[in-house]
Amino acid sequence: MRQRKVKNEEQRLAALEYLQVRDSGELRGRWADFLKEKNESFAGEIYLEAGCGRGHFLAALGEANPDRFYLGAEGRSSVVLRAMELIRDKELKNVLFIPEFILNVESFFAENELTGIYLNFSDPWPKARHAKRRLTHRDYLKGYQQALKPDGFIEFKTDSKPLFDFTLEECQVIGLTVEECTKDLHRSDLPARLITTQYENRFRLLGKPIHYCKIRV
Ligand SMILES: C[S@@+](CC[C@H](N)C(=O)[O-])C[C@H]1O[C@@H](n2cnc3c(N)ncnc32)[C@H](O)[C@@H]1O
Q1: Structural domain range at position 56
Q2: Tens of pLDDT along 122-152?
Q3: Domains in the chain: how many in total?
Q4: 123 an active-site residue?
């Protein structure tokens, strides 16, 4: 996808280098030690949002849970820039960014390193020939399964019914348990309705139902 340039992008990104984890593959298996050095309050639980967009969801989670660490992976530089500016403005010490497209989660995280993974409004890739690019394709799910601790979770939100149905089928094929599931999150009493993403707010204003599931590994 062509990336939209923002004004002074390079300089602005450079000024926020401290919020970016470069060569993050080299931290595989060592994330907890690395993050403890960044923030003394960190108690050991690491969460990833793959495709974090402008970071609103991570900012809210980071504020609510100061002893956890949140990593946002975002492949579009103009978008991750906005996310980092938000975290800088909120002065949060427990959110960092991997400024890359995550194609293979196992190359970033060793077994059992993550407690939870959030997939919010992932690109739907509607064409059948692009199914492998969907972040809930079984190949991705198997990678998440490896990186997550026993009893870890994946939370998935989307406005796309075809992507949601596909995701439930993929979970069934590889034997993952879907613990919570709704086709209209904001008419449910599930806790996931309480912290929303930027896309979620946009779709809610348009009256679109939000599909949500929580997958336990
Ligand atoms: C539709 S937006 C949703 C943003 C945000 N999660 C929200 O709900 O507001 C999807 C974002 O995921 C990013 N993305 C897609 N595939 C990705 C991947 N494999 N790794 C990192 N970012 C990815 C895109 O660049 C885009 O910014």
Answers
A1: 12-216
A2: 999 999 999 999 999 999 999 999 999 999 9
A3: 1
A4: yes
